[in-house]
Design a protein that fits this description.
The chain has about 290 residues and is mostly helical. The chain has two domains: about 120 residues, Voltage-gated potassium channels. Chain C (Four Helix Bundle (Hemerythrin (Met), subunit A)); about 90 residues, Helix Hairpins (Orthogonal Bundle), CATH 1.10.287.70. The chain has a two-stranded antiparallel ribbon with strand order 1-2. β1 and β2 form a beta hairpin. α2 runs antiparallel to α3 and α9 packs antiparallel against α11. The longest helix is centred in the C-terminal third of the chain and has 30 residues. The two termini are about 30 Å apart.
Length: about 290
């Protein structure tokens, strides 16, 4: 059902065509663009990783890596500006998840010109690899993503209760260990935060071994907490599994609304399920 939002502004046909290529992955051109973009992102991430090696500070590697970094930054900057130009509501894109990630991928280089070491934040570009789900997702993969999102949203109250229970168990175990162990001179449990760290590590069955009990009651508490941890680990898995098993998984594609940027509409959808704007017709898979 259409919302009360104002209709998106009319744009030139070339902008609609570029929007289809850059923001969607159902056409051969759109998929080719996204694949090329992911290759560039992978190369950029490789440069960031290599630049952290000690040898990267020696000539001529430092100059080569710096040049490549500026080349990738120029490409990403041009792409980001192009995305802002072709969308009908630039602010909505700029404040969307991928819009923020796209901006963060180019900011570190410019920040590095002002703040020394700011360019180390370039590792955030790895987040852009999330676009790989847009490129290679078939209908069934996108449907599964929608089902998972629905299951998490539906079971959020149950998960909240579960996390609250875990927090209560951690606090009780921490208090017991703090009292029992600290009274026997075990400095590892001298404070509640230290005891809570131990409780979380023990409850998740990680067991680093850097903090260990020395008293009988401390060891008994540890044993009980490990058993409780094993029991609680399966709870969130069971909650999500039950919700996903009972959810309907609509068949959707990668069409992106040019008005509100929502992606993932049913194959026969004519209007956006969020803002009500008319969608572009389905393109070819190219696959």
């Amino acid at each position: 059902m259409p919302s009360n939002e104002s209709p998106p502004p009319q744009v030139a046909p070339w902008r609609d065509k570029l929007h289809e290529i850059i923001f969607e992955a159902d056409t051969p051109a759109g998929k080719a663009f996204d694949i090329a973009l992911i290759i560039v992102i992978l190369l950029s991430v490789a440069v960031v990783v290599i630049s952290t090696m000690p040898e990267a500070e020696d000539a001529p590697y430092d100059t080569i890596l710096l040049t490549l970094e500026w080349v990738f930054t120029a490409i990403f900057t041009a792409e980001y500006i192009l995305r802002l130009i072709i969308v009908r509501r630039p602010i909505r894109y700029a404040t969307s998840f991928f819009g923020i990630i796209d901006l963060l991928s180019i900011l570190p280089v410019f920040i590095g010109l002002i703040i020394p070491g700011g360019d180390k934040l370039l590792v955030v570009r790895t987040l852009r690899l999330l676009r790989i789900f847009r490129v290679f997702k078939l209908t069934r993969y996108l449907s599964e993503a929608v089902a998972l999102k629905h299951a998490i949203n539906t079971s959020r109250h149950k998960i909240a209760v579960f996390l609250t229970t875990v927090l209560i168990v951690v606090l009780i175990a921490s208090a017991i260990m703090h009292v029992v162990e600290s009274n026997e001179g075990n400095d590892a449990f001298s404070s509640m935060p230290e005891a809570m760290y131990w409780a979380v590590i023990t409850m998740t069955t990680v067991g680093y071994g850097d903090i260990t009990p020395i008293t009988v009651w401390g060891k008994i508490t540890t044993t009980v907490l490990v058993l409780v941890g094993y029991s609680l680990i399966i709870v969130p898995t069971g909650i999500l599994t039950a919700e996903m098993a009972g959810s309907m998984k609509p068949h959707v594609n990668t069409r992106c609304c040019s008005s509100c940027m929502l992606e993932g509409h049913q194959l026969d959808a004519i209007y956006c399920r969020r803002c009500g704007a008319q969608l572009e017709p389905n393109g070819s898979d190219g696959g």
